[in-house]
Amino acid sequence: MEQKSMRLTLRVWRQDGPNDAGHVETLQVDGILEDMSFLEMLDKVNQDLIRAGKEPIAFDHDCREGICGTCSLMIDGVAHGPMKGTTACQLHMRHFRDGDTITIEPWRSGAFPVVKDLVVDRSAFDRILQAGGYVSVNTGAAPDAHTLPVPKPDADAAFDAAACIGCGACVASCPNGSAMLFVAAKVSHLARLPQGQPERRKRVLDMVAQMDAEGFGACSNHYECEAVCPKEISARVIAEMNRDYLESRLCSGS
Amino acid sequence: MTLKLDARIPDGPLHEKWDECRFHDKLVNPANKRKFKIIVVGAGLAGGSAAAALGELGYQVEVFVFHDTPRRAHSIAAQGGINAAKNYKNDGDSIRRLFYDTIKGGDYRAREANVFRLAQISNHIIDHCVAIGVPFAREYGGLLDNRSFGGAQVSRTFYARGQTGQQLLLGCYQSLLRQVHAGKVRFHARKEMLDLVKVDGHARGIIVRDLVTGEITRHAADAVVLATGGYGNVFFLSTNAKNSNVTAAFRAYKRGAGFANPCFTQIHPTCIPVSSEYQSKLTLMSESLRNDGRVWVPKQKGDQRPPNEIPEDERDYFLERRYPSFGNLVPRDVASRAIKERCDAGYGVGATGMAVYLDFRDAIQRLGRKVIEERYGNLFAMYEKITGEDPYEVPMKIYPAVHYTMGGLWVDYHLMSTIPGMFVLGEANFSDHGANRLGASALMQGLSDGFFVIPYTIGDYLARHGTMDPKQKVQPDHPAFDEVESEVRARIQKLLDVKGSTPVDVFHRRLGHLMWDECGMARSKEGLERALQEIPKIRAEFWKDVAIPGDPKEFNQELEKAGRVADFLEFAELMCMDALHRNESCGGHFRVEYQTEEGEALRDDENYAYVAVWEHRGPDQPPELNKEPLVFEAVHPSTRSYK
Ligand SMILES: Cc1cc2nc3c(=O)[nH]c(=O)nc-3n(C[C@H](O)[C@H](O)[C@H](O)COP(=O)(O)OP(=O)(O)OC[C@H]3O[C@@H](n4cnc5c(N)ncnc54)[C@H](O)[C@@H]3O)c2cc1C
Ligand code: FES
Question: Smallest Cα–Cα separation from B404: which of B67, B105, B617?
Answer without folding.
Answer: B105
